[in-house]
Design goal:
The protein is α+β, with helices and mostly antiparallel strands. It has five helices and eight strands, in the order βαβαβαβββαββα. The chain has a six-stranded mixed beta sheet, covered by helices on one side. Strands 4-5 form a two-stranded antiparallel ribbon. Helix 4 links the parallel strand 6 and strand 7. Helix 3 runs parallel beside helix 4.
Length: about 220
């Protein structure tokens, strides 16, 4: 997961992005931890969330054990190249971010609680990097699925920004955008750290606590 070129820290222009392909790349059929179908349709009553926080191996592990989270999966989003491969994303020429898609039961775990994990689980002030991982694929992002999520996400960013400033950190660089198309990552990336418990994880938070019960104003 180490890709350090400075060129990869600038977003590619749409007309310079790799062409990709018409067909999806192959991925896992089931979740390695839960055994649930990985590409099951969203069930009635469930909601989805999408986050980019750096290397998606470590990010996914933060979410799959949360009570109320039904399913997690890793993939690529917020770029230009259709159906990209991991190798293509790593070139910095697709524009995609490494993201985790979370299917959750809002009656058990709230979107606000997932945002708390997001904000506390990485450093959202680092721009196009996370720790030693540098490039546009490691940027911080919240990708919202409706107006309510967008409002909550924006409010949480403002609240956490105050906490970070008080602790001596710089401005938040996280993007908050309507959820783009999600492209599944390859089989071996799904639940990678469950398959490889000693595998690389470059994710680390700031140590700053995000306010619980994030209020929308």
């Amino acid at each position: 997961m180490f890709f350090m070129s400075q060129e990869k820290s600038q977003m590619v222009q749409r007309d310079q992005a790799l062409p990709g392909r018409d067909s999806p790349i192959a991925t896992a059929s089931t979740h390695f931890v839960t055994g649930r179908p990985l590409q099951t349709p969203l069930s009635e009553g469930m909601q989805e969330a999408m986050f980019g926080m750096g290397c998606f191996w470590g990010v996914e592990r933060m979410f799959w054990g949360i009570e109320g989270v039904w399913l997690t999966m890793v993939g690529y989003a917020a770029g230009y190249t259709p159906n990209p491969t991991y190798e293509e994303v790593c070139t910095g020429k697709t524009g995609h971010n490494e993201v985790v898609r979370v299917i959750f039961d809002p009656a058990v775990v709230t979107y606000e609680a997932l945002l708390k994990v997001f904000w506390e689980g990485h450093d959202p002030t680092q721009g196009m990097r996370q720790g030693n991982d540098r490039g546009t694929q490691y940027r911080s992002g919240i990708y919202t699925h409706d107006g309510a999520q967008a409002q909550i996400a924006e409010a949480s960013r403002s609240l956490f920004a105050e906490q970070l400033r008080a602790s001596g950190f710089g401005a938040i660089t996280s993007e908050i955008l309507p959820a783009p198309q999600f492209y599944y990552a390859e089989d071996y990336h799904q639940q990678y750290l469950a398959k490889n418990p000693n595998g690389y994880c470059g994710i680390g938070g700031t140590g700053v606590t995000c306010p619980v019960g994030l209020a929308v104003t």
